């Protein structure tokens, strides 16, 4: 009888150990700004003893739990909550999903007769911003197609074959990807039929972009404007100096000479002095 008892105890211990070690791992993602729901068990709520969600997010950790006696815990305080479906199945609700909600979601659900453990790696899906432009590089025309801040990374292709430069893919700290593809264009190529095709899971249809031919001439137009303005200013300064130089001698000739102190004529003074001397001699 004791042997049967020990066998039962060992069997129960091994079963509980197996339950605790069994983990279901999966990956999922939600669109930016959407509401996300995560399930931890298919058992209805009336058979569940407790549910514990442990969230290891990008910038913090928090915990949400609930048990069948009404006690609950929620240290996330950002709108996440445990809810029940119409069939009384528990799930974690994430409102307005953003980059701050990216992370590892661990869940343990204990029910009558067993438990379930989940590890769910949650990512975000964001459509990229797309653009195309033409630029000059080493005296060559280059078409640049760009898919910016998307997740997952977009795929870029061209309607024409040519000298493709290495695709530049950048992954920023928020988990977003920026992809840039460069295509060198042959001299004299007609770009009217050139298109860039961008594919992304959130695009219902591929984005097809065409470069603006006027943008290709923009650098040359800017250079032409600078040259014209420079020549105009140089000509204005040249003619202004040419007109001002002849006026300088004229201005100097019209200047009145400085007046020196007037010297009295000695010849005008001497007759008057001799006259006074004669008059004085008569009276004497």
Give me a quick take on this structure.
GO terms for molecular function: signaling receptor activity. The protein is of the alpha+beta class and 284 residues long. It has helices at residues 2-21, 213-253, 266-283, and strands spanning 23-31, 36-44, 48-57, 61-67, 72-74, 81-84, 89-94, 103-111, 114-125, 129-137, 140-150, 155-158, 163-164, 168-171, 177-185, 196-199, 207-209.
Topology summary:
Layout: H1 2-21, E1 23-31, E2 36-44, E3 48-57, E4 61-67, E5 72-74, E6 81-84, E7 89-94, E8 103-111, E9 114-125, E10 129-137, E11 140-150, E12 155-158, E13 163-164, E14 168-171, E15 177-185, E16 196-199, E17 207-209, H2 213-253, H3 266-283
Membrane topology: Single-pass membrane protein
Pfam family, one: C2-set_2
Family: Belongs to the CD200R family.
